[in-house]
């Protein structure tokens, strides 16, 4: 399975017996899987199956699901209240016989509150089950489209991240080959520092001076940082080739990259090495932004 992004959008529509519906699924970045489902009244039974389908399809991300329904829901019917109507007709005819007037009109009677009632239709459990199955099948189509959108965005992300990892490897190699790391360059810097100390006229113990020089050279050595950067580059390439959801691992690895770059910058005693370290930090910051989008 190629790398997937956590960003995507999908829509799917369906129809059954005059009932029309449309699913919309939106996915954005998230540290875990956070699902929100918005359903119209009467379709609450779809909530748990929809959540289960999302959990099986996505590992991470904030997902918002909405269902809109129109047409014949079959949930309400009009019912004539004959008892109220008979009472109105009887009272109206009695009043007309007493004081006269026009005959009662049907449209006038039907407009009187209570004559026509809106009632809940009897629920056909079997048909409701078939309707829900059709809607959930359509929801699976929306999830398939969402997964395709996330994979397409993931392919773009993978290309960007791979280029950034290659750039980190190139910079680490440049730092490894830097003339500032040569024994001659290190001796020259230490000699210059010792010369400045001697110019102050301070009394310095030769043995202590030698120890301090060794410590200074050790503190300036960036071999371990370069080795770890190479190891992190290899790990990043393994994640790019993985079939699993690697977003969390990539996020942690980007932090490790940043830690080594910071240490390299703090140890750099040469302008060229400092420039490499700063560019490393810039590329790694860009990498950290990108991996936030990986599932």
Topology, pairings included?
Layout: E1 8-16, E2 19-28, E3 33-38, H1 47-57, E4 61-71, E5 76-80, H2 82-99, H3 106-110, E6 116-120, H4 125-176, H5 183-199, H6 206-220, H7 223-240, H8 247-267, H9 271-291
Parallel strand pairs: 3-4
Antiparallel strand pairs: 1-2, 2-4, 5-6
Helix pairs in contact: 1-4, 4-7, 4-9, 7-8, 8-9
Please provide a brief summary of the model.
The protein has 295 residues and is of the alpha+beta class. It has helices at residues 47-57, 82-99, 106-110, 125-176, 183-199, 206-220, 223-240, 247-267, 271-291; strands spanning 8-16, 19-28, 33-38, 61-71, 76-80, 116-120.
Extended strand count: 6
What is the average of the pLDDT values? Answer: 85
Query: Low-confidence runs (pLDDT<50, min 5 residues)?
Result: none
Q: Name the shape in a single word.
A: rod-shaped
**SS strand fraction:** 15-25%
Q: Assign a percent range to the helix content.
A: 55-70%
Lateral arrangement of strands in the main beta sheet: 1-2-4-3
Structural class: alpha+beta
Return Rg in Å: 37 Å
Order of SSEs, N→C? EEEHEEHHEHHHHHH
Describe the sheet with the most strands. 4 strands, mixed
Task: Tell me the span between the first and last alpha carbons.
Answer: 12 Å
How many separate helices?
A: 9
């Amino acid at each position: 399975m190629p790398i997937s992004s956590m960003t995507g959008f999908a829509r799917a529509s369906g129809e059954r017996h005059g009932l029309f519906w449309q699913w919309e699924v939106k996915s954005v970045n998230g540290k875990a899987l956070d699902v929100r489902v918005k359903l119209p009244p009467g379709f609450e039974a779809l909530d748990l199956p929809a959540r289960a389908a999302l959990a099986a399809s996505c590992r991470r991300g904030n997902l918002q699901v909405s269902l809109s329904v129109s047409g014949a829901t079959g949930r309400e019917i009009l019912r004539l209240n004959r008892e109220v109507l008979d009472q109105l007709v009887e009272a109206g005819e009695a009043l007309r016989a007493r004081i006269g007037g026009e005959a009662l009109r049907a449209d006038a009677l039907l407009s009187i509150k209570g004559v026509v009632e809106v009632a809940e239709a009897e629920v056909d459990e079997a048909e409701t089950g078939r309707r829900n199955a059709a809607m959930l099948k359509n929801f699976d189509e929306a999830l398939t489209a969402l997964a395709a959108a996330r994979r397409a965005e993931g392919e773009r992300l993978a290309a960007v991240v791979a280029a950034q990892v290659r750039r980190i490897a190139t910079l680490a190699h440049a730092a490894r080959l830097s003339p500032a790391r040569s024994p001659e360059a290190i001796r020259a810097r230490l000699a210059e520092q010792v010369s400045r100390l001697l110019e102050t006229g301070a009394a310095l113990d030769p043995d202590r001076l030698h120890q301090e020089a060794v410590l200074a050279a050790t503190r300036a050595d960036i071999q371990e940082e370069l080795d770890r950067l190479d190891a992190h580059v290899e790990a990043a390439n393994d994640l790019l080739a993985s079939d699993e959801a690697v977003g969390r691992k990539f996020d942690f690895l980007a932090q490790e990259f940043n830690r080594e770059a910071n240490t390299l910058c703090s140890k750099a005693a040469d302008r060229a090495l400092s420039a490499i370290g700063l560019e490393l930090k810039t590329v790694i910051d860009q990498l950290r932004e990108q991996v936030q989008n990986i599932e």
